[in-house]
Amino acid sequence: MDIGLRDSVAFVTGGGTGIGRCTALALAAEGAAVAVADIHIESARATVAELTAHGAEAIAVQADVSDEESVADAIATTAHELGSLDSLVLCAGISGLYGRSIDEISTGEWDRMFDINVKGQWLPVKHALPFLRLSSKASVTIVASDSALVASPLHVPYCASKGALIMMVNAMAVDLRGDGIRVNCVCPSVVNTRMPKNDIGLSDDADLGDRYPIHEPDDIARYLTFLASPAAATISGHALVADFGFVGQSSFPM
Question: Model-level pTM?
Answer without folding.
Answer: 0.93
